[in-house]
Automatic annotation (TrEMBL):
Bilayer-spanning residue ranges: none
Gene3D superfamilies registered for this protein in UniProt: Homeodomain-like (1.10.10.60)
Pfam families: AraC_binding_2, HTH_18
Tree of life domain: Bacteria
Protein name as it appears in the record: AraC family transcriptional regulator
Domain HTH araC/xylS-type, first and last residues per copy: 205-306
Species, as recorded: Pseudonocardia yunnanensis
Keyword terms, alphabetized: DNA-binding, Transcription, Transcription regulation
Length: 316
C-alpha cells in the first residue's frame, strides 16, 4: 500500500501520478490523503480523503490528448456527498452510492464539504459488457440498497484491507473478480441499448476489427467496408449506430488514434508527417493535419514535440 498526504496545491500532481491527469480547484487550506493498492493488470484500488470543498474536472481536450483514454473509474462514496457529471448526466452520491466514469470523455466531480471515497481504476476492456452499454452506464448513480451494489461495495472495502497480504497473482484475480461484480451491478442500472448479442453484434465487431487491421489501406472507405462484409452501406450505418457513431467516423477516429500513437513512439521518430499520414491510410497531408487538429486541438508536429521522449531523432 502506498499512502500520500497532500495539500490543495499538490492535488493536481497527486491525481496525475496516481489516478489520471485532471484540473482541480479547492481552497488553499485543503488537505487530503490517498492510499493505493495495486491489483496488477486489473488496475488499482484507491481510498481517498478529500478534506474540504473540491471541484475536479477533465476537459474534452484533455480526454482527447490523454494516453490513459481506455481507463474506467468506479467510485463508491464512503462519507459525505458529491456530484458527478458526464455525457450530460448528473449523479448525486450519498454514502454507499456508486458511480462509473470513463476517462475518454470530459467529466466533472464536485463536493461542498469533506468526503471519503473508494475508487476502482481499471482498463475498459476488462469490463465484460458491450461498449455502448459502458458509456450508457456512466454518471448514473447506483442505489446503495441494491443487492448487487451491497455485494460489490462490501467486496471492494474488504479487498482494500487485505490486498497487501495477497500474492501478485491473487491480487490480479481479486481485481478481475471485482470487475465482474461491477458488470453485474451495471446491468441493473444501464438502460437497454439496441442491438444485443447476436449476428448483428458479431458482424459489427468483425467490421471494427477489419478497420483496425487495415488502417494503412487508403482504399478502405465506408462503401468498401460494406462490400467486404457483404452488407449495404445503409446496413453498415445501422450497425455502427449501436455504438453511437458512423462507420466513417469510426474509421477516421481509429486512423487518428494510430497516428497519435506513432507520433509518440521513438521507433517512428525518423518518419516525416507525410509518411505517418500514409501509414494510417491518409494520402493527403493537409487532410491529415486538419483532421488531427480538429480531433486533438493541435497540429501533429506539435503533438510530436510535446510527447516524443527527449533525445529521440525527430523529423517535422
Amino acid at each position: 500500500m502506498q499512502i500520500v498526504d497532500f495539500c490543495g496545491e499538490e492535488l493536481e500532481d497527486v491525481a496525475g501520478e496516481f489516478l489520471l491527469s485532471r484540473i482541480a480547484r479547492t481552497r488553499p487550506d485543503f488537505r487530503g490523503r490517498v492510499a493505493f493498492q495495486e491489483l496488477g493488470e486489473a488496475g488499482t484500488l484507491c481510498r481517498s480523503h478529500w478534506g474540504g470543498p473540491l471541484r475536479i474536472f477533465r476537459t474534452e481536450r484533455m480526454a482527447a490528448r490523454a494516453s490513459e483514454d481506455n481507463l474506467m473509474l468506479f467510485c463508491v462514496q464512503i462519507a459525505g456527498e458529491s456530484s458527478h457529471h458526464q455525457h450530460g448526466r448528473f449523479a448525486q452520491l450519498a454514502v454507499g452510492t456508486g458511480v462509473l466514469k470513463e476517462t475518454r470523455s470530459a467529466y466533472e466531480r464536485m463536493s461542498a464539504a469533506e468526503t471519503r471515497s473508494l475508487t476502482l481504476r481499471f482498463p475498459r476492456e476488462l469490463l465484460p459488457i458491450r461498449a455502448a452499454e459502458i458509456t450508457e452506464g456512466c454518471a448514473r448513480s447506483v442505489d446503495p440498497a441494491a443487492p448487487a451494489m451491497r455485494v460489490l461495495s462490501g467486496y471492494l472495502g474488504r479487498l482494500f484491507e487485505v490486498a497487501e497480504d495477497l500474492t501478485a497473482t491473487q491480487r490480479l484475480d481479486a481485481g478481475c473478480a471485482a470487475i465482474d461484480l461491477l458488470a453485474m451491478v451495471l446491468r441493473d442500472v444501464t438502460p437497454s441499448v439496441p442491438g444485443g448479442d447476436g449476428p448483428g453484434e458479431v458482424l459489427l465487431e468483425m467490421m471494427q476489427m477489419h478497420i483496425r487491421e487495415h488502417l494503412a489501406d487508403p482504399g478502405l472507405r465506408v462503401a468498401e467496408l460494406a462490400r467486404r462484409h457483404h452488407v449495404s452501406v445503409r446496413h453498415a450505418h445501422t450497425l455502427f449506430e449501436r455504438i453511437g457513431t458512423t462507420p466513417g467516423a469510426y474509421l477516421r477516429e481509429q486512423r487518428l488514434v494510430e497516428a497519435r500513437a506513432m507520433l509518440s513512439d521513438p521507433r517512428y521518430a525518423h518518419l516525416g508527417m507525410q509518411d505517418v499520414a500514409a501509414a494510417v491510410g491518409i494520402l493527403n497531408l493537409r487532410t491529415f493535419e486538419r483532421a488531427f487538429r480538429r480531433q486533438y486541438g493541435m497540429k501533429p508536429s506539435s503533438w510530436r514535440r510535446e510527447h516524443l521522449p527527449t533525445g529521440s531523432a525527430r523529423r517535422p
